[in-house]
Amino acid sequence: MKIISFGYTAAPLLAGRKTITRREWKDEYALKFHPGEIVQAYDKQARFGGKKIGEIRISWIIKQSPLLMPDSDYEEEGFAWLDENPEFIPKKFILKDGTKDMKKYFRMWEMFGEPCWAIKFEPVKLLPFESFFTSRNSSLTEVTF
Length: 145
Known about the structure:
Mean pLDDT: 91
Structural class: alpha+beta
Organism: Leptospira weilii str. 2006001853
CATH class: Mainly Beta
Shape: globular
Largest sheet: 5 strands, mixed
Low-confidence stretches: 135-145
Strand content: 15-25%
CATH architecture: Roll
Order of helices and strands: EHEHEEHHHEH
Protein name: ASCH domain-containing protein
């Protein structure tokens, strides 16, 4: 079964607030994924010790310019949840001025991002949020299975 890793957005995925992801994949790799296919969701890439956190079903996959992202993708990418739970915002998403503002990050991505593969999905089976994350503070730890 194929794998998609959610390293930076595992928290909103497990909270039930992520239903689309964008990837800078090579076309030949992206075209191996198909609507209706069930793939494994990992917390990070398997080669870096990632663990399975669930399964998702692909609804559709298209190559798209970020300029075409609808405003609703702010929520569907899990960014609204991250704004509501800033302790889960990964360092990669913190702006150069130190701002933790995912709406601003989304707008900058929309304006300056490169075309990438958008994968819309629905969860099939996910670990409960509380079973994966044991605390909700800056010293966040993960439960080991």
